[in-house]
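Reposting from the mailing list since nobody answered there.

I have sequence plus structure tokens for a pair of proteins and want to know whether others read the tokens the same way I do. The first protein:
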Amino acid sequence: MHITEDPSGAFTATNVPPGTIQINATSTSKSGDLTVRVGKADQSGLVLALQPAETKLISGTVVDESNTPIAGAWIGADADSTFAGDDGTFELRASGPTDIHATLGANDHYPMRDVVMHLDVDRDIHGLVVKIPTTRGEIRGHVLGVDGKPAGDTWVSAASPPVLTAADGSFTIPSLRKGTYDVRADTARGDATATVHDVATGTSIEILMQAAPTLHGRVTLAGAPVPHYDLRCQGSSYYERRIDAADGTFALEHVSQSGERPLVCRAATEQAEGQATVVFAGGSAQVVIELTPFATVTGTVLDVFAKQPIRDAQVMLSGRPLGALFSNEHFVAEDGRFEIDHAPSEDLRILIRTKRAYATVPAHPIAGRTLDVGTILMLPTPHDPADLQIYVTDKLAVRWIGSDRNPGLHVDDTIVAIDGIPTSSMPGERWTSLFMGNAERGHTYALTLARGVTINITAE
């Protein structure tokens, strides 16, 4: 189920399963619930009335580790927040299980990250002492350029939003938790960078910029240079190039290194692809990419009932771009066949999608070879979609029946065949689509149950 709302207060819930549901809405001071019985027809005009929430008063003082009140500290409950007064005192309102957050104030870098305590607020609470567990510090310093001169307008960061150096290269990173940090500086042009490790709060440092290295790389296939290929490198920065070089080499100037995210380069031709992680050492950056030939994946998509091609089916690789640079969408041919000719040789999932249904199939093609995943059965796309008014699990167990026109069918019945086709012929999650508004209007379906009887139900 998916719910959307707009500023006017109107809401829409889609893909709602049959049964009884409860919709809850809350604001900072009001809340409300609405119980809805979901049946065959769409429902509109529902009204969810919000009532004033029964909140309780929480009052107290925000202090530091030495129990000194903190003026202007920010404190918040789940649905209310405030700033402490000059004497550190505060008042806010909450109800039920509540997380209490607190930080130094509005200028703190991460004003929502400190959960100080958890309360079960069932009454007014007075005299609460909220202690911020770790006081903050700052790191100061100067940045010198590659030429040894003060570097103004340089970005400096330490696990925090970056700050710009002044014209004399000075900087201050405020409101840091006490501890040690890696402090990084980068020029706005990206042509120089430097990192100072294990810097303690309360200290002053000097950062000497180093020219950002040029990445030198080489792309090969079976050990031989690849003269033409497309290149993409992504880490903390992104680079994309078309390379034409007889010896297969390339160079990218001013590449940046990140301790949090490695720089990975991927190269691809029409026949092969490969990737490798860039190695930074001694002011240089190197990478060698060996390409692996693409594999080909083929198969056939058929209607589970008539065993005829489903011509509106679209096939793609799930969770992975096709190769590095190729289209990820293929429609089946008139005979239901499909071919993906730029598939990487790794564990994949083939996604088959029609206008009203989808399926996934695992595959592990081998480089340079063709893998046929066989016949993939799916529900046909209905010309006039209708609802059977039955809700089933992916094991085809009946969980809800929405009409008395289904005589003989009971909750907890298990469907073992539909129109004579065993439900074991394809995964249960594909069958469930039939019971979610994808039946053919006017068609009578014969549902064979595990208890040995067959029930005929017409989609209306």
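The second protein, same order (residues first, tokens after):
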Amino acid sequence: MLNIIKQSQEHGIFTYNEMLLYAKKALAECQSISVSIQSRFPILFIDEAQDTDAFLWDLLTNTFDQNNIKSIRQGFGDVNQAIYGSLNEEDELKCFPRNSALVLEESKRFNDMIARFANTVSITESEMTGTSPLFSDREIKNSILLFDRKNHNLKNVIDTFGQLVIDTFTDREIIQYKHEGIHAIGMVHEKKEETSDAHFPKGVFDYWKEYRPLKKDNISNPKLLIGYFRNGIESFKSTKENYDQIYWIVKGLGRVINKAKKDRFITLTGNILLNIMSKLDYSQKTLFRKYLKECTDIKSFENQSDWKQILTITLNILAIFDLKPNDNVNKFLEWQESDSFVNNKTDSITKNCYTYIDDNSSREVVIEFGNIHSVKGRTHLATLVLETYYKTHNMKSILDYLCNTPPKNTNSTNAKRLKCQYVAMTRARGLVCLAIPDEFVDNQKQIKLTQLGWNIIQL
């Protein structure tokens, strides 16, 4: 193992954690590095500061807090949203916020009703107010959907939410906020085994049997390069993450290079961009980055003239590797009409979308399913938070908080559940709903929830 690590480092390949360790060592041995960095960057702004771990905080402190050096370090974040991939992960944040931090109590995403709901699961003492004037012209029924979990067919939960969306928003509004979407989310979403009666509903998959976790590596590869580019564009539209677009582009370009080389020259798993870069010298890397940037700048391929720009860039990339297109490459670079692509593609970029149609009006809404972590930082038109199970049912374990009657002490596991719930309940700008088994919510709790402003719907 040590030999493998040594060989990878000799080739200039380091893990993220290795780079942090080297940075710590360099700062400890050469204090002038701190002086130099602060001279170049007198102001450090840390966004999403609640997700910065203790090691990195120490590294930043050692870099920007040396004596007699003037620099400003400003962190911005929300400790209520410090959530990670698992309830088992350590997420206690001691470095942020600092004492006497400035608290921004207004949210312009949603109205004050949603803010009051979210405040019940906040782990901080300060309360948020919602100041958005959107949809203030109507009475929105933010609802808790109580269902019988003995009935393993939960389609009525999703359909009831769909009907609430139709009753709340006009078609024009649904189209206007289509890029934000209507979402059904839960904390558990990967199915590892069949759900037992005691654990039901265990995950998002128990509400909609067609749900599949979105994993790029499990998506079938397009037959043509243009399919990779279109996948990248659709992924970017869905997630607003450049990484997702770049992933598809470099995977397609890697196939072009391999076809021209007639060999598996580029490994098309793991970090494909790094795999390509490892084959290039410094000047070639700079040129490749330039061409890759040009590829990401083109956001649609409506006709062949758009695609010809990519063909020119692709040939330039092949030239970096001293390669020329052969018959296999030329076939892979062929143009394909957009409609043909949509009909033939087998990727799952949009497969986790369920369409609800109102029988009376024939109006319809598309509901996108996912997990809570996948929507962090995003805004929805409407959100349905689904009860799921990890060691115990999630909302059942924090129901006293949702009723605004929290216990005196909060254990670490429930603190993490509260953070996940807070993230889930603060995505929607218009309508937020919860789906909870009715056996968890007795009459007394229903009264408390109603007093808070929730609309209770017994399915």
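Reply #1 (J.P.):
I read it the same way you do. The domain at 16-106 is CATH 3.40.50.300 (Rossmann fold).
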